[in-house]
Design brief:
The chain has 473 residues and is an alpha+beta fold. The chain folds into 2 domains: 6-247, Glutamine Phosphoribosylpyrophosphate, subunit 1, domain 1 (4-Layer Sandwich), CATH 3.60.20; 271-454, Rossmann fold (3-Layer(aba) Sandwich). A 7-stranded antiparallel beta sheet has the order 4-3-5-2-11-10-12. Strands 6-7-8-9-13-14 form a 6-stranded antiparallel beta sheet. Strand 6 and strand 7 form a beta hairpin. Helix 5 (144-153) crosses helix 6, helix 9 runs antiparallel to helix 16 and helix 11 (334-344) crosses helix 13.
Length: 473
């Protein structure tokens, strides 16, 4: 398993999904999906895969690594079809092995199903036990296979009813792309925790985790898949089935803080505009007299621009990110993490030396990387370093597809702001409040999940046997 060095101190999204239905793009379908997955690469860097449907048969290829490492022209040319789905993964449930890579392709009485899943189920273990007791055999350790088995189990009811039945039984977060019965199918959980949108392509349609994936293949955004909706795409167009409209809507607020690309629009809200606004509100809530505003690249950049605009303090580049470092397969220890930060980031000394700096980051999870960055700025001659964070302290664990450390590793859960300031070594520290975050996203509080900041989960979550459970202080 590789170690993503710089993102050690960030929360990590589980995965991204991308699908195309097009009779006119058969020869280029897999290549178009490849481009879509590259655009969604920020949502998962451990494995990538593509499955295509052609004349009733499903071919697939998946492997560990980045999209550009997994696929080449030879592989892409073998994947010809009129329906295809792709997946990029960061593991939160199930080990990081190629057998757990997606899309999953399973055989059943009526043929084959291909499935790609973004999210995490909170009742997967219980359902899996029931299915195994009834004779089901599992090939992977991921919860996505539970969904595929439920669909296959109920297939005698017809594929639509089988998918509806499965969607009603599973609990948690899920945005699904499915190939079944020569159709492309999208499913979004009733809370809408994970994003999924629809694009119109010449001769077909696209399903993507984020709207940023549409433009690269020439698709035009139509709308988001609604929470609790199943969309079935074939030659007749799009059929919509609302299977559950009664749940609390709870789009993950961390999509706007960090996960989504700035050029995406989620449920009608611009990620870029929300980050600009978050920076402006942060400047209002936590002003400080300083010479320059700087960002921790790249995730803090947009909020830093907003902070600079609101405060009137100029934005300057102070940290340079090495975009070509890639991944390392060396298991991290303390010395390796320190080295990786220095390799990943370098300081532009002429913009730092003698300056009072406002440093903007999107979040602090463990605090270790923040401390090293502050040390680098001080070593480069920074006179003062004031850290401002464009999200609230992360105090609770996530059960819905985000890789969250245990409580003893969440610095915001076990330390006060003053204690965090001292641990990181900054002159002052200010977080955006929950109300400020909700205001920046410009959605009503009851339509967002802010559980990682306040513990108000949109559904009942497990209290035993889950690796995300808090360890008491």
């Amino acid at each position: 398993m590789y170690y993503n060095n710089f993102d050690f101190d960030k929360l990590n999204e589980e995965c991204g999904v991308f699908g195309i239905y097009s009779k006119s793009c058969k020869e280029n379908l897999a290549r178009m999906i490849y481009f879509g997955l590259v655009t969604l690469q920020h949502r998962g860097q451990e494995s990538a895969g593509i499955a295509v449907h052609d004349n009733g048969k499903i071919q697939y290829y998946k492997e560990m690594g980045l999209v550009r490492e997994v696929f080449n022209d030879k592989v892409i040319d073998r994947l010809s079809g009129d329906i295809g789905i792709g997946h990029v993964r960061y593991s939160t449930t199930g080990e990081s092995y190629v057998t757990n890579a997606q899309p999953l392709v399973v055989q059943y009485k009526g043929g084959s199903i291909a499935l790609a899943h973004n999210g995490n189920l909170v009742n997967a273990d219980r359902i899996r036990d029931q299915l195994e007791d009834n004779g089901s055999i599992f090939q992977t350790s991921i919860d996505s296979e539970v969904i595929a088995n439920l669909i296959a189990k109920n297939y005698n009811l017809g594929f639509k009813e089988a998918i509806v039945s499965a969607a009603k039984e599973i609990k948690g977060s899920f945005a699904l792309n499915i190939i079944c019965e020569s159709k492309l199918i999208g499913v979004r959980d009733p809370h809408g925790l994970r994003p999924l949108c629809i694009g119109k392509l010449d001769g077909g349609y696209v399903l993507s985790s984020e709207s940023c994936g549409l433009g690269v293949v020439g698709a035009e955004f139509i709308r988001d898949v609604k929470p609790g909706e199943i969309v079935i795409i074939d030659d007749e167009g799009i059929e919509s089935i609302m299977y559950d409209e009664g749940k609390k809507k709870a789009l993950c607020s961390f999509e706007f803080v960090y996960f989504a690309r700035p050029d995406s629009v989620l449920d009608g809200q611009s990620v870029y505009k929300s980050r600009i606004k978050a920076g402006k509100i942060l400047a209002q809530q936590h002003p400080v007299d300083a010479d320059v505003v700087m960002a921790v690249p790249d995730s803090g950049t947009v909020a830093a621009i907003g902070y600079a605009e609101e405060s009137g303090i100029p934005f300057r580049q102070g940290l340079l990110k090495n975009k070509y470092l890639g991944r390392t397969f060396i298991q991290p220890d303390q010395k390796m993490r320190e080295l990786m930060v220095k390799l990943k980031l370098s300081v532009l000394k002429e913009n730092v030396e003698g300056k009072r700096i406002i440093l903007i980051d999107d979040s602090i999870v463990r605090g270790t990387t923040s401390r090293r960055i502050v040390e680098m700025l001080r070593n480069a001659g920074a006179k003062e370093v004031h850290l401002r964070v464009s999200s609230p302290p992360v105090t609770h664990s996530c059960y819905f597809g985000i890789d969250t450390p245990t409580r003893k590793q969440l610095i915001g859960a076990i330390h006060s702001v003053q204690e965090i300031r001292e641990a990181i070594g900054v002159d002052s520290l200010g977080y955006l409040g929950v109300e400020g975050l909700v205001k920046s996203i410009d959605m009503k509080d009851e339509r967002l999940c802010t559980a990682c900041f306040c513990g108000n989960y949109p559904m009942e979550v497990p209290n035993t046997g889950n690796k995300y459970l808090f360890e008491k202080k």
